[in-house]
Design goal:
Blueprint: H1 2-15, H2 21-41, H3 54-65, H4 75-78, H5 81-96, H6 98-109, H7 115-125, H8 133-163, H9 165-180, H10 201-216, H11 218-227, H12 235-250
Helix pairs in contact: 1-2, 1-6, 2-3, 2-5, 2-7, 3-5, 6-7, 8-9, 8-10, 8-11, 9-10, 11-12
Length: about 250
C-alpha cells in the first residue's frame, strides 16, 4: 500500500503541470490496476504456484479496484494468502479513492497539501468548494476504520466458531473490507459466496449494514454526523437517504 501510495504521489507531481484533475485521477486508477494486475500475475499470488495469466490478473485487479465483484477465478481456491491480501488492498484503495490514500500519505509525512493537490481532491471527492477537504479526508479515513473495524470484530466472532481463531480473524477483516466497499469478493470458496450462512442472522445483518453504510457514501455519512438533523441535511444527502430507504424497503 505504501509503495502504491508513493507511486501515485509521484504521478501526481509529474503530471500536475500538464494534466487536469480528472486525468490525474484516471491515470492514477489505471496505474493502480496495472500494479495490482502485475502482482496478481505472480506465481506467488496463486495457490498452485503458477501464474493465473496476465489478462485474468488484470481483470481481477480491475474488478477489485472498481469494486464490482466480478471474478474469473474463485478468490479462495485460486489465490494464495499473498494474492488475497493484494485483492483486499486493491479493494480498500479503490473504495477510498486515489487522492484519499495520497492525502493520507501526505498527512503521515507531515507535508503541506498544495492548491493543485486540493483541486484534484475536490474532483475526487465530488465537492463544490475547496474548503474543508483535508478535514473531510480525515473523516473518511476515520469512518472507514470505525465501520470496517467494528464489522471485522463482529464477523470474526462468528467466523472463529467455524474456522478457528487465525482464519476466523482473517476472514472477518477481509469480508468487512469487501462489504463496506461494496466489492462482492469472498473467501468462502466454490463460488458459493455467503450461501453457507444464509440463515445466520449475525453475519447477514453485519454484512448488510456494512453494504448499506458503505453505499451511502462518505459525504452523506459526514453530513449526517456533522448535522444530526434531517431537515438541515444537504439536498444530496436527503435524496440518497430517501432513495436508499425506498429501494431497500420496496425490495423486502
Amino acid at each position: 500500500m505504501d509503495f502504491s501510495g508513493a507511486v501515485k504521489i509521484k504521478l501526481l507531481h509529474m503530471g500536475s503541470k500538464k494534466l487536469k484533475p480528472t486525468q490525474i485521477l484516471a491515470f492514477g486508477f489505471a496505474f493502480l490496476i496495472l500494479v495490482g494486475g502485475i502482482l496478481l500475475n505472480l506465481p506467488a499470488a496463486s495457490k498452485n504456484g503458477h501464474s493465473i495469466g496476465l489478462l485474468n490478473a488484470l481483470f481481477t485487479a480491475t474488478s477489485a479496484v472498481c469494486v464490482t465483484g466480478l471474478v474469473v477465478a474463485d478468490t479462495f481456491t485460486q489465490f494464495s494468502i499473498f494474492g488475497q491480501i493484494v485483492i483486499m488492498v486493491l479493494i480498500q484503495m479503490g473504495g477510498l479513492g486515489i487522492m484519499t490514500m495520497a492525502t493520507l500519505v501526505f498527512l503521515l509525512l507531515g507535508k503541506k497539501i498544495t492548491l493543485r493537490e486540493r483541486l484534484v481532491m475536490q474532483e475526487a471527492l465530488n465537492q463544490l468548494t475547496l474548503s474543508g477537504l483535508v478535514k473531510l479526508t480525515r473523516h473518511i479515513l476515520l469512518t472507514t476504520i470505525a465501520f470496517e473495524g467494528v464489522g471485522a470484530i463482529l464477523l470474526s466472532i462468528r467466523f472463529t466458531q467455524f474456522y478457528g481463531l487465525g482464519r476466523g480473524l482473517y476472514y472477518g477483516l477481509f469480508h468487512a473490507v469487501s462489504a463496506f466497499n461494496n466489492a462482492g469478493f469472498d473467501l468462502l470458496g466454490g463460488f458459493r459466496s455467503l450461501t453457507s450462512f444464509v440463515e445466520d442472522p449475525i453475519i447477514n445483518i453485519v454484512i448488510m449494514s456494512l453494504i448499506v453504510f458503505g453505499g451511502l457514501g462518505f459525504s452523506v455519512i459526514y453530513d449526517i454526523l456533522s448535522t444530526k438533523d434531517f431537515r438541515r441535511l444537504s439536498l444530496h444527502s436527503k435524496v440518497v437517504i430517501i432513495m436508499t430507504s425506498i429501494l431497500l424497503f420496496s425490495g423486502i
